[in-house]
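We emphasize that the prediction below concerns an isolated chain of 222 residues; any contacts that depend on oligomerization or on bound cofactors are therefore not represented. The input was used exactly as deposited, without trimming of termini.
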Amino acid sequence: MSFNIAIDGPAGAGKSTIAKKIASELGFIYVDTGAMYRAMGLFFLKNKADVNNERQISDLAEKAEVTLKYENGTQHVFLNGEDVSGLIRTQQAADMASATSRYMAVRSRLTSTQKRIAAENDVVMDGRDIGTAVLPHAQLKIYLTASVERRAERRYGELMMKGEKDLDIEQIASEIAARDHQDMTRKIAPLCRAEDAILVDSSDMTIDEVTAVIRKLYEERV
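Result of the prediction step, given as a token string:
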């Protein structure tokens, strides 16, 4: 039987970084559900979809095939056969993903793929509703969070490293708070902590410290 670790939490809490590290240490497959949704978002952008037109979004979702492949230990995201791993890392793709993930057709399209991967492999999967909707029977569930201020600082640092200028950390914090509200109040599979998920606040923790906490929790269950 496969062992599943589900990591949920708001944007900027460090889910992907921690999930990748844990998966690497344990020899598990890392499933980046956010990347899968961004690939779908990219597809909608390419097709100039109206985010408020549920029928259009639903019809387009049926034409998008999102898959994950591993090459030399690195995860690649494919959209209808094209490697879009680099193209999905834009803010536009992320915004479109957040805006359209509230539709059942989009979630159903991707959730079935995620469930299949988890049933066949030991996985670490991160997202917004992994422990509540995608992998409700995961053996270990983590709700990883951090304060809005700390997440804004991290995002500010990431953008600075990319060479972006004229950044306003208060605006970044405001955008993060707005994203939290959107994710937490959507009607379908909103972001929330599963009843049996363990809360880990990374506000004042390093990546290694968070990883050590989760690894200890895993070792207690095997």
